[in-house]
């Protein structure tokens, strides 16, 4: 592929999509809602005005936020991949209905799943995938990669059989690590002419003692081998090797429309403004503002020998207010002089004005409306229904349906990423240890997310039970909906409960009676009702033996 062979560092930079929303959305999710002032949408001075920095610092000190964006993203992540996904390996060949994998295939599956389970737990792959899905929701793209840390890799050979120094397959797995780099430095792009994928990952490296930008390029060559090339601006520092992993790339990228849309961000900023105003409203409502007019404050004056107040000699006392305090305010004395020069004094009455406490009710209502708008924008309006005392059953059902539909937009991306992770992990370990095809020639991975729409209401649980009784829903589905993880273990516990066997026998007896009344032979009816062989034999004996005298319901003995 010449277009990849001649790729330069500058060419690779052009393949990284512009993500204008990325930095702001990540900041909101991580908890930085101030964002150097960009998160504030309230009144503020113009940039460059005198005192701008001082005013913005004062605003920042009283800035209050609630991270609803993180709540929305985390709830969606929990709904898609909060529960441990079902994963494993099955034979690559088609298996006819009713047949099982061969013993050899079963042994290979058991061996491989044992190795991968150890790796999965050690690398905390479930939590890693949850973080990657979260990045997808607020970032639109979520690149993933598998790599061997430089400090753990041995000598790599371009043409040799072994690429990584490891004792066996399990030891090679231990060298592989999952990574979820930022979408700003990594992507899986496509060639416009051939639609062939190419993976790019930018990182800082050291060349001749100087820090320099480099890009790791991965693609599949004409021979079907995966090429890994490191490119810097210094042409003689190119590093390249290839290995056979079945045409796979050690990089993958999940994509979906943003969950944290521009509208969600706008509402988050507006909500933060409302929350920032609440403390101020609480202060003004709790601390009354008083204005005293024309009153001479408590204090003492100095007088001259003629008994006149010495101007500027007033020493004020503390004005005491509150319960049990009596304050005497005296009006201000004003001296007037008429045209003839006669002086007179008059007393101006004192007055006290105060502002009524500010209500916070409108702010609280605004906060709830903004919160509800954010949830509705993210298809999570059912949360408001959960918090309502009397939610509309129909509206709550529709809201939950919208939420599940939203989860299903993310589900295929997460499942594709899971299959890529398992398949590429095994293929890379095989190639590095020199055992290409040991598992991948026979087995393929499966990966299924278990969607979780949250706890069901008592009404929904009753409906599930009715569906199970009517045969339109499996008991396992109903138990899973109720939050039971290990449905097989729960079914076993139900079977062991006192009276559980009696309930089953009653169902079997009802089926047998229905069939025998219709003319079906007793033995055939017992088989249809799945009655155990010993119990079926006992039924046949009971049906053929003559009735015992004295048994209630039996015919009376004939007269002598």
What can you see in these coordinates?
The chain is built from 18 helices and 17 strands. A hairpin with a 7-residue loop joins strand 7 and strand 8 (239-243). The chain is an alpha+beta fold and 560 residues long. The relative contact order is 0.11. Strands 4-5-6-7-8 form a five-stranded antiparallel β-sheet, with helices on one face. Strands 3-2-9 form a three-stranded antiparallel β-sheet. It has a three-stranded antiparallel β-sheet with strand order 11-14-15, with no helix packed on it. Helix content is 43%, strand content 17%. It folds into four domains: 2-31 and 67-260 and 402-448, no CATH class; 289-319 and 327-356, no CATH class; 455-486, no CATH class; 500-544. Residues 155-162 and 547-560 have low confidence and may be disordered.
**N-to-C span:** 107 Å
Give the integer mean of the pLDDT values. Answer: 83
Instruction: Kindly give the count of domains.
Output: 4
Give the overall shape, derived from the CA principal axes: flat
Structural class: alpha+beta
Unreliable spans are 155-162, 547-560
Total beta strand runs: 17
Radius of gyration based on Cα positions: 39 Å
Helix content: 40-55%
Strand order of the largest sheet: 4-5-6-7-8
Main sheet summary: 5 strands, antiparallel
So how many helices? 18
